[in-house]
Amino acid sequence: MILCEEIPGTLSVVVAGLKDTGACGLYGTGGWQPTWLPLFRKAGRVYVALDRDATDRAIALARTFGTRGRVLIPRGGTWAQGRSQRLAAGEGEGQSRAFRSVLDRALATSPTLWALQIQRLRSDLVPWDLEDHAGVRELLCEIGHLGPISRDVHLRLLAERCGVALTTLQEAARELAQSADAEMERLCCQV
Fold first, then answer.
1. Disulfide-capable partner of 78 in 39, 51, 58, 70 (CB 3.0 to 4.6 Å)?
2. Is the CB of residue 25 less than 8 Å from the CB of residue 9?
3. What is the pTM of this model?
């Protein structure tokens, strides 16, 4: 399933005719309703295709779907820069094939929200500041809750990006996840 920011983008996905792929228009970046989540329970993968200026919102929305969530980021600024509107109007099978090809590649290479967050870390972030960086601590905690394969892949990306040993990041992710779990249990016991 592909969640599109606007109706022209949604129609473009439908017209592109991707096999086994549906599309849903959100009517803008704030259009998602949490009550819709059960409607996506059978979707094996949910791609969030918002415009480039809404990447943070796309990450937050992809987080809703856990490991099934992916973020599609257009090469230009938006998914509906004229081409998708022409496709939605049915102008040219050649354009439809071209868009389908671009979309197929985007789906195949779309990053997880954690990989995208790792890519977007500040380039001047030095390894010894990682423990004090709130965003990195949150990221490590979330990665610590992933399954073993996904956790390892993401920690390897972070190790390469930040220049910290993989074993150190594995230990940090495990400790942060355990600490968060203990805090959640403590809060639940108080209620």
1. 51
2. yes
3. 0.71
